[in-house]
Predict the structure.
Amino acid sequence: MDEEQKSRLFELADLIAAVGRQIHAAKEGLREDRWSPLDVAVMRYIDRHPGTSARAAAEATQQISSNFSRALRGLEQKGLVHREADREDARRVRLYPTARAQENLRRLNDVWSDLLDGVLSGEQEADAMIASLRRIEAGLAEKALARLKNTGKA
């Protein structure tokens, strides 16, 4: 990779991080609960994969088990996640978002939608950015999994 490409990719990452900080800050007025970026990542995964195992969620959020466990306990204490025994194997535990989590997600949808309303030029720009960011997220997840496999941790 040449220096110009390296600089361009750094600027992209820097802008994504800056936008993420702005979006993360906008949700702080939602509730009295504080949400760390780890809480958000764990909750996002459980919302999108209800019934997931703790191990799968920890791997997907790229967290070591102790950090993930701490975040999960905090989310349970806030009433946002509950555990259920697996119906086929009672030794396994499945994670599910609670009704309170769904209500928080609905409010977050309102806050973030209002935040971005009028910032983009229209639906086409939003759709193009969504598609690009999904590709970036998937590509980064693939790279993270490959790194784990190369280190023998996956």
